[in-house]
Amino acid sequence: MAAPVRSRPAGVGRNAESPLPSVPGASQEEIRRQNLGAVLRYVHLHGPTSRAELTSRLGLNRSTIGALAADLVTSGLVTEEAPTTTRRAGRPSLVVSPRSERVYAHALSIDADRLRAARVGLGGQILDLREIPRPSGMSAIEAVGPLADLVRDMERSVAGDALLVGGAAAVADTTRDPDGRIRIASIDETLGATLEAEFSAGPGFVAGDLADIAGLAEHVRGVAVGIDDVIYLHGDLGISAGIIVGGRLVIGHRGHSGKVGHMVVNPNGLPCGCGSRGCWETEISEAALLRHAGRDPSDRAAVAEVLRASADGDPTARAAVEQVADWLGFGVANLVNVVNPDAVVFGGSLRDIFTAGADVVRARLDTMPLPASREHLRLRAAALGRDAVLIGAAELAFDKLLADPLNVGVAGQVGPTASAQPSPSAVPCPSRDH
């Protein structure tokens, strides 16, 4: 059981299409394990892939790829089938596919206002998703029990030979107390102990900051694939970031980096829930947008109404969007000068604000950052929507399987009530909001 950490999958940032690096002094077994992981990671990220493509992309010979694929088939992690169509003469190359229905992880999300639990199959497919509201004042620790109930309910439909490889929880860093006031939270060791107690019979859980995990998802499967220097900005009740440099997540001391919502941009601005004044999130959050539009800042449901009114040309709503977008660009410009990323991705509520006010954001970025930091910069709206957090959590949970494919998971015994050996890294939703 891993303690709660802000972490990243070991393969994040590594180009799965590049030849494998050699490891000086590695044993044949270590090389085999590394190569098995490379093959499994490739089909996990890219989906069904022919042996011929694996040979080309991974820099291994055909016989090695064939042997590795056969091992993965025997272990029940992938299937091999002849392609349904082929354009070449001769014997077609077998297609290797992840066994998404059989091999899976638990992904939990403790959002600001809801709790979600999903079963995510190898290959990144969400197989089952449940969610319930998160009452105001419920701590992350108090949320573990209801989430475990959702997991137990999901497990009733899982086949007996399915392979559970682990789980991960993404935790929002901003919540409301019982009086409706916004409070800044953080992940601590107590949450890890609670997860360990509730899921003690399973392969284990890791936990991380919600923005970090959503950023990893966009980096692995979304708009930032192949980009190794990324700032992912997530908006809900507050603003936080997942910062990826050189393909690796920047976590800081005890995992408390990425609190970009609390950099001061307006010393004469409004008080912030952190105790400071003029923090960036007081200028770009949902509450700021509603305040400028003359709406109740606590009415999150009204955000969509303001954005629609802005798109329809309402002058008050448009002015509100432009003011928030201007501050959004102001803060991004500062981050760009510090981190010098290749891309900034806007997720959560910031996705819609960026989309509505992109011209204003870009106008700030055309002048404020240093030329060397802005000339290559790409601005992207997040692609994975609400699912990003669950997909990212699953990537954390799959990490140990991808590092050592033949020695991870518990087959035939799944869920928090079943017996298993340790290993660490709501309502069914027929349609999800992207």
Which residues form runs of ≥5 with pLDDT under 50? 1-16, 412-434
What's the CATH first level of the largest domain? Answer: Alpha Beta
User: Portion of residues in helices?
Assistant: 25-40%
Shape: globular
Number of strands: 16
State which percent range the strand residues make up: 15-25%
The quaternary state of the protein chains shown equals single chain
* CATH architectural category of the largest domain: 2-Layer Sandwich
Q: Which class do the helix and strand fractions yield? A: alpha/beta
Main beta sheet, described?
6 strands, mixed
The name of the CATH topology of the largest domain is Nucleotidyltransferase, domain 5
Average pLDDT across residues?
A: 85
Distance between the termini: 32 Å
Report the total helices: 15
Q: How many structural domains does the protein architecture include?
A: 3
CATH superfamily of the largest domain: ATPase, nucleotide binding domain
Q: For the CA atoms, what is the radius of gyration? A: 23 Å
